[in-house]
Description:
Helix content is 35%, strand content 16%. By secondary structure, the chain is an alpha/beta fold. The chain has a six-stranded mixed β-sheet with strand order 3-2-4-1-5-6. Helix 1 crosses helix 2. It is built from five helices and six strands. It is globular, with a radius of gyration of 16 Å.
Amino acid sequence: MRENNSEINIYLIRHGEAGKSWDEDPDPGLSEKGIKQSEQIVTYLSEELKDKSYDVISSPLLRAKQTAIPLQKVLNFEISINDSFAEIPSPGIKLSERKSWLQNIFDSKIIDLESPQVEWREKIMKSLIDLNQNTLIFSHFMVINCVAGWINQQEKVVNFYPDNCSITKIQKKEGELELIKLGEELNTIVQ
Length: 191
């Protein structure tokens, strides 16, 4: 384990394309395309992580866990499940209303978030700050937006549209987080 003041790299990996949209299934797995996308990140991450020690964390949601599998098969690591990196909570919102609710969140400012989303955001950032090892995190669109927005001190909830299996790299040094590189942006609507 490294000391908290050492430089560590954190990779936020958005899951591959989901088999169903957010308003159709509360926890969809990957589509066939999503499985192929998750296989495509293996080469890049294998090279990036060569000769480095690292931890691997996944959101508890199926699409995030499935995205980690191809890399896990090659690098043989254990995955810790951490619900801090699950998608934005929508308590009390019916499945059929989630898409509309999420679209409203896209246009919201952080100051307008309700208590469950504020607590979710704070939990994500605390979990990141507590990391003391190079870490891969398989997660979600809104989580990545939360982190990038926090680091860049953005007012809006959504400022970036990470594509499926995009890799956003941040660095932690002396307890401070710095955004090194945003992942590839998507050209289509979030699922």
